[in-house]
Design brief:
Helix content: 40-55%
Structural class: alpha/beta
CATH topology: Aminopeptidase
Distance between the termini: 50 Å
Radius of gyration: 20 Å
CATH architecture: 3-Layer(aba) Sandwich
CATH class: Alpha Beta
Strand content: 5-15%
């Protein structure tokens, strides 16, 4: 390596260290959740890079790990384990699979936190959802996959369930492909069909699905979901469903426009 090359390498390393330090300093600034969110948002933009080839090359996919931080979500009926950590684990496994298939992946969260301030001027959940939406839209996502765990008052209900935005053919097509893939790979006792649902995360103007990976209220399914091997199978099934959807030959229907929420409080 020549002197000029060594200089270039050193300069590049200094720039990388500087960028990391900037993010860390922002994260430590008074524990302010807004500053933390801004730093994470910047980190997503800096680190996301597309794989050069694969069946999902050119596709930008937002993977949303539901709940987090103060919001644990559903709780295992036997174990007492909250869904937030299981969601994140499946989402991270899915991120690796989709990236390997050529997609650029945007993660709405990468650890156990909620995307809201400690004491926001609006409901914590609303601010959390607004900030997830901002990451997805600003990141240029083409598709949204929101990962959750299900529960029900009765213990008999089981099986993965995929939801799409009501009245949205684009979402229904994606949801059908993911649901079929999960039914085939996980062989649940009850094979469900994709259903429409009224969820904030599905109304951002792109093909979107909310994936309930299974029921934590069902003893047998909870036991499965608590194992890494089964969560890997779940992630692989979702990824295969996305590939099947992307590979459809016929022109895909246009998604419904994003819901106009300009009159909602932004909380910033």
């Amino acid at each position: 390596m020549g002197k000029r090359d060594r200089v270039r390498l050193a300069a590049g390393m200094l720039l990388s260290v500087s960028a990391v330090c900037t993010v860390l300093l922002t994260l430590c600034a008074g524990g302010n959740a807004a500053a933390v969110f801004a730093a994470r948002e910047a980190a997503v933009q800096q680190t996301a890079s597309p794989a050069p080839q694969g069946p999902l090359a050119g596709l930008v996919i937002a993977v949303d790990a539901g709940h987090g931080g103060y919001d644990g979500g559903a709780v295992g009926r036997v174990s007492g384990v909250p869904e937030k950590g299981l969601n994140l684990d499946v989402a991270q496994r899915l991120q690796k699979l989709l990236s390997g298939l050529g997609a650029r992946v945007i993660m709405t969260r990468t650890d156990d936190y909620a995307l809201c301030d400690e004491d926001p001027p609006i409901r914590k959940k609303l601010q959390d959802m607004q900030r997830r939406a901002r990451l997805i839209v600003d990141g240029g996502a083409d598709v949204v996959l929101s990962i959750h765990m299900n529960e029900y008052a009765g213990r008999a209900q089981s099986g993965p369930q995929v939801f799409y935005r009501e009245g949205c053919p684009a979402g229904r097509l994606l949801a059908g492909a993911v649901q079929e893939s999960m039914n085939g790979a996980l062989t649940p006792k009850k094979e469900r069909t994709a259903l429409s649902g009224d969820y904030y995360i599905l109304t951002l103007g792109m093909p979107s699905v909310l994936v309930e990976c299974g029921f934590l209220s069902n003893r047998e399914e909870e036991a499965l979901l608590l194992t890494g091997d089964y969560r890997q199978k779940v992630a692989e099934a979702v990824a295969r469903g996305v590939v099947a959807w992307q590979s459809l030959a016929a022109p895909k229907p246009e998604p419904l426009p994003a819901v106009d929420r300009s009159d909602e409080p932004q909380g910033d």
